[in-house]
Amino acid sequence: MGEPTTTAPTTIAVTDPRGAESGREPLSPLTPVTHVPISALATGESPRSNGTDIERCRELAETEGELPAIVVHRETMRVVDGAHRLRAAELRGDELIAVRFFDGPARDAYVLSVEANTRHGTPLSRAERTAAATRIIGSHPQWSDRAIAQVAGLSAHTVAALRQRSRERTAQSNSRIGRDGRVRPVSSAESRRLAGKLMRSDPKASLRQIADRVGLSPATVLDVRRRLDRGDDPVPTGRRTRAAGPAKPPVREERDARDSLDALLHNLAKDPALRFTDAGRLLLRRLHRQAVSTEEQASLLDDVPAHCAVPVAVFVRRCAERWLEVAEELERRRCQPA
């Protein structure tokens, strides 16, 4: 029952095949239809402010035969398109549901959800379409006004006005839009303190969940957690009163970080449990490969062709997120009673 079964694909047109020609990058294609347990799925972010309509779910539950395949973001197993169909399948008592997976990043999954909801089902309200367009402007700033308008069901003129207002707010605020499309504060002091409060109130929350809520990177949230574990202030001393401004190159900090990594690896290599076992030596080799020096980092950046910058960045970011999850799990195990 737990193993997915694959069937012939159905036709669900939710991406724009024109891609860059329409002022946007093409989204990842959907996979063929497969059947997965309903219990493995979770509801995702929807542009609909009112959630699912229970009456519509009941109507769908009364239909005979298999419901059309829903779209699911594979990395998070969250529903991108088909929340009503998922609920209807639950009401019918189904254990499996037809799914097409989307393998792109989470920000593209949201675009896919907006695109699907503007093409079928109950129409989105103007307020919902406006909110969706505003979010896409922030996550995909390189997309043209016309491309975002087509996704959100608005006019290009309306999207241009939303983009201008967004720029004005950004210029007036103490924040910036990162290369990943997320808005983060120039001074992270308040966000770090908020992250600390969330950790105390909800110890089981993951790094990624807290990062999304406070607008910090998972790496910064991990640093906050480590500071709290040591009994330190979540905000580094130098950031508590420092005004926003151009930062000096952290040459000494990079050198200290590298020295710290070398010292950690040296101490681990002396541990008999690692040094004299096959599994331990394999672990040490893996850790050595991850300890990239500043010089190696600069060389790697120089070796990446311009047209490969984005996919390489996505790859590196996903690897970093997985290592953060490993670190989080190891720290949790340390806190558990033996």
Percentage of helical residues? 40-55%
SSE order, one letter for each helix or strand? EEEHEEHEHHHHEEHHHHHHHHH
Q: What is the CATH topology of the largest domain?
A: Conserved hypothetical protein from pyrococcus furiosus pfu- 392566-001, ParB domain
- Kindly report the spatial arrangement of strands forming the biggest sheet: 1-2-6-4-5-3
Topology:
Layout: E1 5-6, E2 34-37, E3 42-43, H1 54-61, E4 70-73, E5 78-81, H2 83-92, E6 96-102, H3 106-119, H4 126-139, H5 145-152, H6 156-172, E7 175-177, E8 183-185, H7 189-201, H8 207-214, H9 218-230, H10 237-240, H11 251-269, H12 272-275, H13 278-290, H14 294-303, H15 309-335
Parallel strand pairs: 3-5, 4-6
Antiparallel strand pairs: 1-2, 2-6, 4-5, 7-8
